[in-house]
Amino acid sequence: MAKMGTSSRVAAAIVVVLGFVLSLAVVCNGGKTSSFVRKVEKTVDMPLDSDVFKVPPGYNAPQQVHITQGDQLGKAVIVSWVTVEEPGSNTVLYWSAYSKKQKSEGKVTTYKFYNYTSGYIHHTTIRNLKFNTKYYYVVGIGHTERQFWFITPPEVGPDVPYTFGLIGDLGQSFDSNKTLTHYELNPQKGQAVLFVGDLCYADTHPNHDNVWWDTWGRFTERSVAYQPWIWTVGNHEIDFAPELGETKPFKPYTHRYHVPYKASGSTAPFWYSIKRASAYIIVLSSYSAYGKYTPQYFWLEQELRKVNRSETPWLIVLMHAPWYNSYNFHYLEGETMRVMYEPWFVKYKVDVVFAGHVHAYERSERMSNVAYNIVNGICIPVKDQSAPVYITIGDGGNTEVLATNMTEPQPAYSAYREASFGHATFDIKNRTHAYYGWHRNQDGYAVTADSMWFFNRYYHPVDDSTSAQ
Ligand SMILES: *[C@@H]1O[C@H](CO)[C@@H](O)[C@H](O)[C@H]1NC(C)=O
Ligand SMILES: *[C@@H]1O[C@H](CO)[C@@H](O)[C@H](O)[C@H]1NC(C)=O
Ligand SMILES: *[C@@H]1O[C@H](CO)[C@@H](O)[C@H](O)[C@H]1NC(C)=O
Ligand SMILES: *[C@@H]1O[C@H](CO)[C@@H](O)[C@H](O)[C@H]1NC(C)=O
Ligand SMILES: *[C@@H]1O[C@H](CO)[C@@H](O)[C@H](O)[C@H]1NC(C)=O
Ligand SMILES: [Fe+2]
Fold first, then answer.
1. Which strand ranges, in their side-by-side order, compose the sheet holding 107-109?
2. How far is the CA of 252 from the centre of ligand 1 (A)?
3. Of 97, 273, 410, 465, which is the most exposed, with the fewest CB atoms less than 10 Å away?
4. pLDDT, tens digit, 9 for 90 and up, residues 342-375
5. Is the Cβ atom of 455 under 6 angstroms away from ligand 5?
6. H-helix or E-strand containing 368?
7. 429 alpha carbon to ligand 5 midpoint, in Å?
8. In angstroms, rounded to a whole number, what is the distance separating the alpha carbons of residues 122 and 212?
9. Ligand 1 atom with least separation from CA of 117
10. Number of other residues whose CB lies within 10 A of the CB of residue 289
11. Which residues, in sequence order, are bridge partners of residue 314?
């Protein structure tokens, strides 16, 4: 074959891609596979001396400051930070324009991982906050003080608008920094992040070098010190390393990131729920036992019964490994959990399920696959208006490769898929409508590459599918 010039090769590639998209439309009734052309070379971690990893100046200065919701309703906040030179104070000083300065005391912990010793990790819960109020807070009392702020959510209720950001599998590459920047500058203005697992990828470094947990804490502080990130565990939080003598799963994660699991009757920090504004958010663990008779199973069974849609119309589930994934990466890894829990999600009319793990983006139709019982042979997902939309948003930008290899043809349950880095927002307007938008990092901050108006499954269960059929 004669050698082609670069431009003619690109033109040929475009023709091939177009032809492929057209042929897909003919041979199956799947949704859209994006032909967006992005850079596909492997992304790299930001170097340790990067601006985003800078240690704040001053003796024993608090670093890696992060907050998350601290109770079921949003009237408490867990404030966490790390000091390096000495334990220092566990006190958080906080106030609003309408209240005098108050103090809350917490606890300090440390851990070792192989030959790494952590700094002093502080966790302090501040309670009895007023809804919908801006609070200032100070940590590092006695040495170097640092001040931050957050806004509490509105009181839980059916028509309370609220905007969630969605980020997964973030890591700390140059692309991760782009994703975070795009989230921060998105005019949709997320008020809290639903984080679907795989935080820092320290475990991809020799000896799971936990220094990368610290750098990630400093990198993300610029967002998570000011708005809560709601945590889900991913496989990169397990840190199970018997070759290093480290056999307690989730050790670094559980020391560094606290969640309000006891408030929802959970017995472990890997599955729990919160209410925030008009949403009920259930967080599940793909890496804890979920079969029948397990603690997570019993908890979820009770939990779904507790959801009162008159109070929180929007029922959202977070997990790490997706149930509906048409990429060849991690294909069917979520299948055993789907088999256990999907009938409940349909019965209780979950609005949307967000997952990560696959380093790409995908949105499903409302589909379910619950009829199958081995003898009946009915094992193909069918359109189901009681089923959630499944969204894979594991495209935060970590250094493992972008998942580009897709199953072909695109299955009917897949509405849109694209192998690009990005984030999304879920913007609840009222009890019936929410606007969802996915943003790829290459576009302007306001551009949505994929979007959908969600109709609430309880109050407005009409077909909200985006496909033409
Ligand atoms: C931990 O051990 C590795 C080699 O096994 C070494 O390169 C590294 O410097 C050690 N780190 C510390 C903090 O001792
Ligand atoms: C990360 O992004 C921020 C905000 O856009 C920028 O100021 C900073 O220089 C970036 N750092 C790196 C290492 O890319
Ligand atoms: C559900 O929430 C509504 C609105 O807050 C309340 O009036 C009702 O009593 C709740 N139902 C139950 C069973 O708790
Ligand atoms: C894509 O994945 C399939 C299934 O795992 C594999 O057979 C195929 O070789 C992969 N293609 C590429 C280009 O890697
Ligand atoms: C709910 O929000 C949607 C979208 O903004 C709007 O069209 C609809 O009128 C709202 N419903 C009510 C009852 O306000
Ligand atoms: Fe993962």
1. 63-69, 77-83, 120-126, 107-109
2. 17
3. 97
4. 999 999 999 999 999 999 999 999 999 999 998 9
5. no
6. strand 367-368
7. 7
8. 18
9. 13
10. 11
11. 279
Distance between alpha carbon 377 and the CA centroid of its chain, in Å?
Answer: 35
Q: Which of 429, 453, 454, 464 to mutate to test the pocket of ligand 5 (most atoms within 8 A of CB)?
A: 429
174 CB under 6 A from ligand 1? Answer: no
Q: Is 241 in the pocket of ligand 2 (CB under 6 A)?
A: no
* Per-residue model confidence as pLDDT tens digits over 233-246: 999 999 999 999 99
Q: What is the pLDDT of residues 58-96, one digit of tens each?
A: 999 999 999 999 999 999 999 999 999 999 999 999 999
The dihedrals phi and psi of 178, each to the nearest 5 degrees, come to: -65, -45
Asked whether 430 lines ligand 5 (CB < 6 A), one says: yes
The owner of tokens 């589909």 is 367
First-to-last alpha carbon distance for the chain, in angstroms, is: 42
Indicate the Cα dihedral angle 11, 12, 14, 18, nearest 10°.
140
State whether the beta carbon of 184 lies less than 6 angstroms from ligand 2: no
pLDDT category at 207 given cuts 50, 70, 90 is very high
| Residue nearest ligand 5's atom 5 by CA | 429
CA of 220 to the centre of ligand 1 (A): 25
Query: 306-319 b/e with 16+ CB inside 10 Å = b?
Result: ebebeebbbbbbbb
With H, G, I as helix, E, B as strand and everything else as coil, classify residue 13: helix
User: Do the beta carbons of residue 360 and residue 418 sit within 8 Å?
Assistant: yes
Query: From the alpha carbon of 429, which atom of ligand 5 is closest?
Result: 2
- Give the number of the ligand closest to the Cα of residue 43: 2
Structure tokens at 373: 């019982």
pLDDT the model gives residue 16: 39
Tokens 């609070």 appear where?
135
Tokens of 430: 């009222």
- Nearest CA to 158 among 433, 388, 425? 433
41 pLDDT band, cuts 50/70/90, is: low
Pull the structure tokens for residue 114.
Answer: 């192989």
- Pocket residues: Cβ below 6 A from ligand 3: 308, 310-311
